[in-house]
Amino acid sequence: MLWSRFISRLFKEAKPYLQARDDFKHARISHQYALLLMGREQGDKKIVEPAVILHDVGWSCLAPQQIALAYGVKAGGLEALELNRIHEVQGAVIARHILQTLDYDAVSTDQITLIVERHDSGTEIATAEEGMVKDADKLWRFSQIGFWKEVERQQVGAEELYRHLDKHLWTWFFSLTAKELAENELRRRAQEMRLVLPETPGHTS
């Protein structure tokens, strides 16, 4: 099967599991960021692309009120961590099922499901591919579509979300490329809100 055809099929198979948070667009945009990162960093597309498409399928296992507690600027505490962990672990199970249904390579499937199981957890990465997936996932929040979607979804003010992203700009990302992309996007969001910025993003109080 041609790679582009496989990716289209994978999006189709993942879509029913990406309805809980309206995450299909998130998967699309994160995938585009993953392609940008792979264009400048070394990474195996056969790991990165499926992993970034499937990384959030586990939210389908949680109720809307649980998702609201587990995710976003206002999320915090042990319950949020436990619920977030459920979406990772269950997401890995679903991702494996989808990949096996498509007769995907078993070794690659193991690597992909491990990334899905860890994509929101920890501050270290085992492979460059894992770093790219984590970076692409978080870059969604800085994108124009993603930023304003998160304002609506998390029910927070635009400036509050901006400050939250700015606070984490230099600690969330694993590659310099991702940090540069995030910084550029954050400046655009500030221009959209007509915020007065400090000299360098990442240093707001």
Mean pLDDT score, rounded?
91
Assign a percent range to the helix content: 55-70%
| Main CATH class | Mainly Alpha
The helix/strand class is: mainly alpha
N-to-C SSE series?
HHHHHHHHHH
Q: Which blocks of ≥5 consecutive residues have pLDDT under 50? A: none
Estimate what percentage of residues fall within beta strands. under 5%
Number of helices: 10
**Strand tally, please?**
0
Explained architecture:
The chain is mainly α and 205 residues long. It has one domain (18-193): Hypothetical protein af1432 (Orthogonal Bundle), CATH 1.10.3210. Helices cover 68% and strands 0% of the residues. It has helices spanning 3-14, 24-40, 45-54, 64-70, 77-101, 106-118, 128-142, 144-154, 158-168, 176-193. Helix 2 runs antiparallel to helix 3 (45-54) and helix 9 (158-168) runs antiparallel to helix 10 (176-193). The longest helix is centred in the middle third of the chain and has 25 residues, at 77-101. The radius of gyration is 17 Å and the shape is globular.
